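From the pipeline queue, job 12 of 40. The input is one protein chain; the requested action is below.

Action: predict structure.
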Amino acid sequence: MAGAQNELSVAERRRLREEERKRAAGARQATPAGTEVAIVELANNPRNAREELEGLEGLAHTYSESGVLQSLAVIPADVFKAAFPENAHEVGDARYVVIGGNRRLAAARLAGLKQMPILVNQKATTRKAILIAAATENVARQELKPFEELATIEELKAELGTYDAVAQALGKSAGWVSQRRRLHNLQPEVRKALEERTEGMTIELARDLGKIKDPEQQLAAWQKEKALAAARAAEPGSGKAATGKPKAAKKLPKQSGDSAGNEPDTTKERRDACAAVVAAFEGDASRLHIIALQLPTEPDEAVALASHWLGEAGIGASALSLPSLTGDEGHERQTRAALALSLAHCEVHLTNVGPDDPAHARAYLDWLATHADYQAPDAAHALTA
C-alpha cells in the first residue's frame, strides 16, 4: 500500500509540474517580450525584499517628462501563484507579477501612466527560480539596503540549503555572502545607527563590527569610531566634543611650522599628495612599506594621521581596527589601510626628525614623487619642511 501511495505522489507531482510548464509556455506565447501592457494588469511582487520604495516623486516626474525607457522584468501571475500559493491573494486578478522593477512600477502609477514596457522571464517557473531571478535583479542593480540584502540571502538559503549555493546563484563569492551575514551579530544600537545612517557609520564599518561577537566590545568599538567621525567633522581648532565630554580622539600629529603654528606649504602639499594616494593608488606599495617598517615612529600618531586620510577617502578608520583583521575578507580596505599607515609613519618621522635622518627622508620623498602628483622641492628644503 505504501508503494502505491508513493507512486501516486510521484505521478501527481509530475502532473503539477507539467501544468506549470504549460501555463508558463502559454503566457509567453500570449505576450511577446518587449511589449507594453496596461499597468492595471501588473502586480508588485509580494515577496519583494525592498521594504521602502524611495525617491518615487523624482522618478515619477522623469516618467511624466520622458516616458519609461527600461522594461520591467515580469512573470505570469498564474506561474507566481502556483509557486507561492500563500501570496496568491496579494496578486489578485493581475496578469503579471513584477520581479524586477517594483520601484519603477510604483513611480509609473504615481505619474499616472497607463502602460509599461515588460520583458517576460521565460525561465523562472519554479519557486526557486523566481526567488533567484528577483534577488539577482535587486542585487545586480544595488537596489537593496543592507538588511534587505541580508533578508534576501536568508530566504534563498532556506530554499537552496547552503550559503555556498546562495553565493553561486547570485554570482557572488562566498566572502560576499559571509560579509553580509555579519549583520546578524550587530547589537541593537549599532543596527539602528546603520539603518539611520548615523554620522561615522558605513556598511563597511558595520560588517567589521559584526565580526566582534562580544556585545560590550562591539559597542565600545562603535563609540570609538563615532567619536573619531565627530572629531573629523568638527571645525579645525574648535576643540568641541561631539557627545558631551568623552575621552578625546587622538589629534593629528603636529607639523613643523612658524611660531604661530601655521602649516608650511611644503608639508601641506606633501600631505595632500598622501591623501590623494590613499584614495586612488592601485599599484604596488612594497617599497613604501619597507621604508616605513624601518622608522621608529610613535604608533598612535601614525594611526591618527592614517585614520584621517582613510576617513577622507570614504574607506573608514575601522580598516585599521585590530578586530577587523581576523580574516581575509575586506582585502581591498586592508590594503588601502596598510598604504595609509605606511605613509603616515613616513610623514610623522619626517616631521619629527627631518634632516637628522636624510636617508629615510629621501627614500620616502622619492617614492611619493614617483607615485603621486607631487614634486619634491630641493633636498635641503624638503628635509626642513
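Job complete. Residues 60 and 107 are 5 Å apart (CA to CA).
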